[in-house]
Write a structure and sequence with these properties.
There is one protein chain. With 235 residues, this protein is α+β, with helices and mostly antiparallel strands. The chain has two domains: 97 residues, Beta Polymerase, domain 2; 116 residues. The chain contains ten helices and four strands, in the order αββααβααβααααα. Strands 3-2-1-4 form a four-stranded mixed beta sheet, sandwiched between helices.
């Protein structure tokens, strides 16, 4: 374990052990809560040997108390299903692997390898989808500065996540969220000003005083540059 377990973790593990017994193989926490976002709920992944409707009903009965404790509904997967879907969800599972803290069992990611081409293809799909929707959403703002500003504010975390995925594609495996985002910006050859503005905008209590509406052209250019960079990736 590379970081202290969140305060809500012991109760979550205890609940899952009651539901699954010896079928519970591992529980890991991951995500923004572990990276200094105290306002974020605890997110977790539980791997089990089998998963039945009775298990789902038992977990459903616990969902209310988990929510009150600031715990998101755990992602619960059979072990073989998880390992068989690494190629389908390389970004999502890669982010869990990057940030995880082991709460119970053996490290489920020991020896796990996400194939580089699966990662590159997923990055391309995600970036180009974001680009298409970004242009569409800008048109829907009708150019109203307030709406454009809100568009950039809401979209900034998505761009930061894209940059972290590009960092992973470039074999950057740091657990530090800011460092991973900065490395992704460097690998994609984004200009420093845009990278800094995006990072500031992602913060929930950002003191950034820049007009987000005026940032939109640079934001759009950054996503377009990301798309070109991933298209040309030969790492």
């Amino acid at each position: 374990m590379h970081a202290p377990a969140p305060a809500a973790a012991p109760a979550l593990v205890s609940d899952l052990r009651r539901v699954f017994g010896s079928r519970l193989r591992a529980v890991v926490a991951y995500g923004p809560h572990l990276e200094g976002r105290d306002d974020a709920d605890l997110t977790s992944l539980a791997l089990v040997t089998t998963l039945t409707i009775d298990d789902l009903e038992a977990c459903a009965s616990l969902a209310g108390q988990w929510a009150k404790a600031g715990v998101s509904t755990p992602l619960i997967l059979p072990e073989d299903e998880f390992r068989g879907s690494l190629d389908a969800f390389p970004l999502e599972y890669g982010e869990i692997i990057r940030t995880h803290v082991l709460l119970f069992g053996d490290d489920p990611f020991a020896g796990t390898v996400i194939q580089r081409e699966d990662l590159r293809r997923a990055c391309e799909t995600q970036i180009k989808s974001h680009l298409v929707h970004l242009r569409e959403q800008f048109i829907e703002t009708r150019g109203t500065p307030r709406e454009v500003s809100e568009l950039v504010r809401v979209a900034a975390p998505a761009l930061a996540a894209l940059l972290r995925n590009v960092a992973r594609l470039g074999d950057v495996h740091t657990r530090d969220r800011l460092e991973a985002t900065q490395e992704g910006a460097r690998l994609a050859a984004l200009d420093d000003h845009t990278g800094t503005a995006v990072l500031e905008s992602e913060r929930p209590n950002s003191t950034l005083r820049a007009d987000h509406a005026r940032l939109f052209p640079a934001y759009l250019a950054a996503v377009e540059q990301l798309a070109r960079a991933v298209d040309a990736w030969r790492g």
